[in-house]
Amino acid sequence: MADTKQMVRRILKHNDGKIDSIYFVACGGSLVDMYVSYYFLQSEAKTVSTGWYTANEFVHVTPKKIGPNSVVFVCSHSGNTPETVAAAKVAKEHGAYTVGLTFNGKADVLKYSDEKIVYEWGNEREVVHNPMAIMLDMATQLLAGIEDYDQLEEFRDGFNKIDTIVDNAIEQVQPRTRAFAEKYSNEKMFYILGSGPSFGHAYGFAICSLMEMQWLDAVPIHSGEYFHGPFEVTDKNRPYIVIESVGRTRAMDERALTFLHKYAEKVEVVDAKELGLDMIDSEVAEYFSPILFYTILSEYRSKLAVKRDHSLDVRRYMGKVAY
């Protein structure tokens, strides 16, 4: 993992440690990677405000609170996503302290980053090196430095365990991911349910894995919102994927599943508890759910892509036409 401790020390030292807001700004999959850190601060912070912005909205509707007491995380895998580069520039112009993450050491986004993180990529079994884990690690340390957050040791233990949990879970899901691809390869529409810090990955799996990479229609639904409109379309023909978290919002996922098991037939459950996440302290385990789900859902999409003979890398518009 990147040397986050030194970075956090520099951030806390900047402006005499006066930090009143932390923002997460990106596009697409990089924005999804930020959701858990945003959710963590939204849930645990007492004095620090937070925001989660798609980059172009941040540029056009910049929060009035952005200033010298703000920290802004910006992330772009290529490092050159125009909207994200523009957002980083706007953050700097407003006096914020910026943290840039990318896979590209020569990225444009780094030109506007006070802290520069070039992360590792490609090894799905070493998730502590991915941007999601790096940002969550920094968010916990920042909060501890600002507000005396007292569960850093539980997080340290979780980061030490998560690679092993993910590695075991990959092996565990191989039969079911193959069965999923066989069963659902002809479907054209999926509903993805999730809650808590994992809702970001319900959204991400829908827009990135299914819509972008497989050209399939997909709708992310918060498990808590399912009974306030979306459940009216439930029947035995529509396929549902429920990413069942651990922690405080699991009850919402379970409630949705109880209904789905009664009125639907095409239901795939990806359960963080079953996949071993309860090895992590229950006070913080929910924040590791998205890290686990990213890799496991990648197994689902890979098997589906092979069965459908539709490469995950093929695009019609992205990077090919003007937009």
UniProtKB/TrEMBL annotation:
One of its GO terms (molecular function) is hydrolase activity. InterPro entries: FrlB_SIS, Fructosamine_deglycase_FrlB, GlmS/FrlB_SIS, SIS_dom, SIS_dom_sf. Gene3D superfamilies: 1.10.10.2240, 3.40.50.12570, Glucose-6-phosphate isomerase like protein, domain 1 (3.40.50.10490). Pfam families: SIS (PF01380). The chain crosses the membrane at residues 21-41. Its EC number is 3.5.-.-. Keywords: Carbohydrate metabolism, Hydrolase, Membrane, Transmembrane, Transmembrane helix. Catalyzes the conversion of a range of fructosamine 6-phosphates to glucose 6-phosphate and a free amino acid. Homooctamer. This is Fructosamine deglycase. The lineage of its organism: Bacteria, Bacillati, Bacillota, Bacilli, Lactobacillales.
